[in-house]
What we know:
Shape: globular
Largest sheet: 9 strands, mixed
Helix content: 40-55%
Structural class: alpha/beta
Oligomer: single chain
Amino acid sequence: MLKKSWIGTVGIFLAISMAVFAMALSAEGQDRKVVVSSWGGDYEKAFKKAMAEPFEKATGIKVIVTSYPDFAKMKAMVDTGNIEWDVVDVEDRDLRRGMRTGLFEPLDYTVIDKKDLIPEMVTPFGVGIEYWAGILAYSKKKFPTGNHPKSWADFWDVKKFPGKRALYSNPYMTLEIALLADGVPKEKLYPLDVDRAFKSLDKIKPHVSVWWSKGAQPPQLLTDGEVDLTYAYSGRIAVIKRGGIPVEIEWNQGLLNPEYLTILKGSRNKKEAMQLIAFCTQAKPQAEFNQMMNYGPINKKAWELIDLKAAPDIPTVPANAGKLVTINGDWWAENEAKVVERWHAWMIK
């Protein structure tokens, strides 16, 4: 009798324990998440639709998207151990800087399948999400196609091409276009002649109506008619062009920039972050995201899924790629701190 009672008690205890364990697993599954720092605007919308939402549906892992990536914030998080972001979408320069300063977790290529990825976009601490280009964008109302600025020297020529101008309020890529405007051949751009770049910028500075800081601003400025020509991110302009806004992209002397996904060192959701990155590099989400944004995919098989009608505004199609200059992220990783200090002094003088 006592034996039966003891067995019954143990059975009840085990049943309760298993139920509690199952509830804990369920709660853990519900709490699984990954926080992504992305770039806002149409870029963030495309990321959510093509990558975050399908990943959530496939895995049950919640993806929280915030903006904007910032190197100083990343470094502060890692230095203090207060990690708010798991995955960060970074430009080539910040990947290089972060690798030098130990900001990122090493990626696990047993989880991330690199077989179909462009080899140059696979690094120990970051894997590509896309290629984008910084380009000259202009209003077709102000400049009918064929009678528009076709180089950065033309952008600097305010007499031949009058109109309201906008530039990026940052030396990154702005120094490059200043040197191209001053006649430096693209194959001799690096190492950057910083003194010459600032002298070139002195010439255009009085004619710049808006210095923008976020990638969503140039398409809005063109849409609202606040400026007639601007430096901009190609995909942002392609999106409003597709929406019927009379704008166009000049690919000549555009600046090609690789973009990477990274995991911040000390991420509390490292496993989920790795799974998300693995998903984002697959052919289908690559095709959907890059077609929406008109950026260049890093999974070679994604091209089989991209509607070629969208291809004219993708920077890495052959017709555009040959006109571009690839940004040297290593130069910026080495020199950015001192260049930024000089930039701030120049902006206020």
